[in-house]
Sequence to fold (365 residues):
Amino acid sequence: MRRALLAVERGVDESEALELMESADYEVVEIVPVRKIGEGRTGISTGKAEEISERAREAGVDAIAVYGRLSSSQAFNLMKESGVDVVDRDKLILEIFALRARTPEAKLQVKMAELTYELPRLRELIRRVRMGEQPGLYGYGEYEVERHYDHVRKLRIRIGRELRKYSRHREVQRQGRRRWGMPVVSLAGYTGAGKTTLFNALSKERRPVTGHAFTTLTTTTRTMWLGGDRHALLTDTVGFLSGLPHYMIEAFKSTLEELKYADVVLLVVDASEDPAVVRRKYETSMEILQELSVEPPRILQVLNKVDRAGMDGAVKVAAELGMRDYVVISAKERLGMDELRRNVLRILEAEERQEATASPEAGAV
Fold:
């Protein structure tokens, strides 16, 4: 486990920052509050950069983690001043992705995001090498850096082709499901909301639940029973996170598009968290679903962890967020599963009635 000093902007949720640091296998030795991240030559004020650099040297940490987005130039400047590696929020998330990727597709998606992140850093490195500067921990010459830059560009093109093959394969699978007439129910929600636990409860699977961020990076599909002789295909997808840059969403787009084509999307919300945190995570999730063109009538809000929040607490959360179509459950304790299935069936039957009404045969005489 690497040791790190963590810089967090005042007013930002420290608990999420610490959770991500733990998920990336960092031990946070100290949290340093800063006024603003992303401004100036190091991304933080000059005085605070000097203070953090000195504390990092005294503590003998492996890295300074800045819980915000730094430009290539800012990251290099802070690394040069401190003498240790600098990890911004984007890089931290990418490190978690790399640790969690298990399937060939997930590894390619993560690699694509990593290379996209790396390209502007390499351009900055080339600029500095040409100026005769040896930025931070890097000691490459101009030829080596430019050759690596070209390699990264070509590798991104090659990985893009491979990911398009997976996307086409997934489309073939979707067409097959439509021919079978098997409805698809997809799980969505902020990372850590309990999607995988709910997936296990509904599908009788035993997928690992780690409690860390981004346990799931690939789509997993199993059968779930809805009642009587009705079944559906249940899919689990990558968790959401606020402030994800577009290139990360783009890298996982083929996986996330499963939500766009699902008949029902179960948006899992952790109702046991602080109300302000619940609101932020819920709004982030709804924004991403909107970006993926998921139609609101197909979304069922699932307030999870009622065993912690209590029924009154969960209902209060729903009221504060203006939820109308929701169910309250505990995936861990298997509470509310029948009610959840009934609501999924209700949405599916409403869609089936709408399709029957809209079909040409419905108006034929």
Observations:
- The mean pLDDT is 88.
- The two ends are 72 Å apart (CA to CA).
- Strands lie at 2-9, 26-34, 63-66, 85-88, 184-189, 220-227, 230-236, 264-270, 299-304, 326-328.
